[in-house]
Design a protein that fits this description.
Strand 6 and strand 7 form a beta hairpin. By secondary structure, this protein is mainly beta. The protein starts with a strand and ends in a 12-residue tail after the last helix. An 8-stranded antiparallel β-barrel has the order 1-5-4-3-2-6-7-8. It has a single domain, classed as Beta Barrel (Hypothetical Protein Pfu-838710-001). It has 2 helices and 9 strands; from the N terminus they run E-E-E-E-E-H-E-E-E-E-H.
Length: 161
């Protein structure tokens, strides 16, 4: 089984911007609502497209399957089949041989910035940059599937901090 081990954090300052090596615009949508055993996502990453299936569980380790698909088909799915969509720019930062992915959301999720790091094991140590805030790995509200269906800007103010 393909397994993703990932930790997610809130970003609390713009200090990360000076460390970015590359950035990529992303547009993604979900083909099924909440409550199932998996989330099914289609994503445009620049000119590349992927279909992704992830176990609908909360936590650092989840089953994940990802497949390249034609970009034209991804655009059709995004425009005609998706029930929830979001857009963001993903910024890549290398620190101590590990890649941080900083997602800067736009549109209905504008103002939200989160950072993720993929690890080889649950207990793998990593340097925690000063621009990281609280950990969000166990908070389902910050998962992209939830954000696509319940945008961050619609949350009560007290929940957005």
């Amino acid at each position: 089984m393909a397994m993703e081990i990932e930790r997610k954090f809130r970003v609390v300052s713009d200090a990360w911007r000076a460390q970015v090596n590359r950035s990529l615009a992303m547009r993604q949508g979900y083909l099924a609502g909440e409550g199932g055993k998996a989330s099914v996502r289609v994503r445009l990453e620049g000119e590349d497209a992927k279909l992704n299936i992830k176990a609908a569980v909360v936590g650092a380790a989840r089953a994940e399957y990802e497949y390249d698909i034609p970009a034209a088909q991804a655009r059709e799915m995004l425009d005609n089949l998706c029930i929830g969509r979001l857009e963001k720019t993903r910024h890549y930062i290398e620190i101590d041989g590990l890649t941080w992915e900083v997602d800067e959301f736009i549109n209905d999720n504008a103002g939200l910035v989160v950072a993720e790091i993929e690890l080889d094991s649950i207990d793998q140590p990593f340097e925690r940059p000063a621009w990281l805030g609280r950990e969000l790995t166990e908070d389902r509200r910050y998962y992209n599937h939830h954000l696509a269906l319940h945008p961050w800007r619609t949350w009560p103010d007290e929940d957005r901090h």
